[in-house]
# Entry
Amino acid sequence: MKKEKMNEPKEPLFHVLKRANVPAWQTWVIRLSAIVVSILICSLLAFLIIGASPLKFLGALFDGTFGTSLRIWKLLKGTAILAGISLALVPAFRMHFWNTGAEGQVLIGMLAAVACIMAFRDTIPNGLLVVIMLIASVLAGMLWGFIPAFFKANWNTNETLFTLMLNYVATYLVKYFLIKWTPNGSSTIGRLKYGMLPTILNDYLLVILVIIVMVAIMHVYLNYSKHGYEISVVGGSVNTARYIGINVKKVIIRTMCVSGAICGIVGFLIVSGLDHSITAESVGGQGFTAIMVAWMANFNPILLLFSSFLVAFLNQGSGEIQTVFNVSDAFPSIVIGIVLFFVIGCEFFINYRIVFRKKEDK
# Structure
C-alpha cells in the first residue's frame, strides 16, 4: 500500500487559475498599489545607489512634473502626443495586426507637412496651407499603413517586420529631403514660420484638445460601429470572420489605413502646433513606447490617457532626477523600468490567482 502511494504522481505545489468577474475598483486598487510600491522601491534604490534621501528623490520626481505651470503643460503635452500615437495602434492590435511602424508613420506624416510648407510657403495664405498640410499628412500616414496591410492581406507577409522596416525607410527619406532643403549641407531647417496652427492660451492646449477628441471618436468607432465589430471578430478568429461573411482583406487594409491616418494627424500636430520643424529624431522613439502604452491600456482608448500620463510623468520626472542629483541617464532609465515592470506585472494578479497545494492529512 505504501509502495503504491509512493508511485502516485504528486500534485503540483501550486495552480494558476483564471479569475472571473473581478470588480473594476479592485483592479484599479491593484494597479495603484503597484505604482506606489514601485516608486517607494525606487526611492530606496536612490538612497542605496546615489545617496539621495527618499524624500528628496520623491520631491525631485514630482517637482519635475508639477513644480511649475509650464512643467504641468509640458506633462499634458507629452501625455497627449504619446496617447495619440498609441491610439493609432489600438485598432490594429485589436485585429491582431502587430503594427510596429508607428514611429515611421508619424515621421512620414511630419515629412509630408513640412514638404507642403517648403512648396507653398510664399504662395498661399496660412489657413489654406494648414489645411493642405493636414490632408498631405493624413494621406502619407495612410500610405505607410496601406503598404504592409496590402501585402499582409494578399500574401500573409509578416506585418511586424514589414512595418518595422518602413520605419527606417521613413527615417532615411527625412534625411534625404533635409539635405535637399539645406544647400549648405547642415541638414537643419530650423524653426519654420509658416503653416502654424492658431494659439489657444498657449502652444499646447489646441493639440491636447484635438487628441482628446480623437480618443473619444476612436472609443465610439471601436465599440459602437460596424467597423469596430468587424475588427473584433477578425482579431478573435479569421476563419470565423470569413464564415460569417466578413471580407477579411478589406478589414485589414481599412484598419491599417485608419491607423496610418491617425499617425499622420499626430505628425501634422507636431509640425504645425509644436516643433514647427523636423529632424530624423523628431518622434524620439515614442512610436515604440506607444506599443507598451497600448498594451498597458489593454487596447482601450480611454485607458490610454491614463497609461500615457504615467509614462509621460516618469519620463519628465526622471529628467529632473538626472539634473538634481547629477547622475547619468542610466539611473532614470532604471526608475522608469522598475515602475513599468510593476505596472505590467500586476496585470497577472488581476487576471489570475495562485492556489497552493493543501498539506496532506496524516
Observations:
- Residues 73-303 form one domain.
